[in-house]
Amino acid sequence: MKVNFRSGTFKKTTDYLKKVSKSLQEANFHKYGERGIIALKEATPKDTGKTSESWSYTIEKTDTSVTIGWTNSNVHNGVNIAVILQYGHGTKNGGYVKGIDYINPAMKPIFEQLAKEAWEEVKL
């Protein structure tokens, strides 16, 4: 049997990939941005509550990707408080305050749900 690889097109494949790309671009990423903020607010250790109330998110879209970023604007003396709560920090007198991993556990269910919904949109 002889097969001619020069005939035919990749139209079906190309159309499918365009559909996948478009559906991911149009997904409701703001919903996940807001869910992330809620999760981070609830999980952030509270003293004054300023750090937990300082979360925000951004969405950046390109032709090939969408990125959601969460940031915290509570900065004291040039130090982001959310970061030192997460990773720990030294003290004035030479001591060390151990960090608390609160961000990763809070965001894991958000990432899992986003991945699940994205997969549902693009699967055949």
Question: Could you describe the 3D structure shown?
Answer:
By secondary structure, the protein is an alpha+beta fold. The chain has one domain. It is 47% helix and 19% strand. The chain contains four helices and six strands; from the N terminus they run ααββββαββα. The chain has a two-stranded antiparallel ribbon with strand order 1-2. A two-stranded antiparallel sheet has the order 3-4. A hairpin with a 4-residue loop joins β1 and β2. α2 packs antiparallel against α4. It is elongated. The mean pLDDT is 87.
How many structural units, i.e. domains? 1
**In percent terms, what proportion of residues is strand?**
15-25%
Please write the string of helix (H) and strand (E) elements: HHEEEEHEEH
- The structure class reads alpha+beta
How many whole angstroms does the radius of gyration measure? Answer: 22 Å
The count of strands amounts to 6
Overall average residue pLDDT = 87
What's the arrangement of secondary structure elements?
Layout: H1 11-26, H2 29-43, E1 55-61, E2 66-72, E3 75-76, E4 79-80, H3 81-87, E5 88-90, E6 96-98, H4 103-122
Antiparallel strand pairs: 1-2, 3-4, 5-6
Helix pairs in contact: 2-4
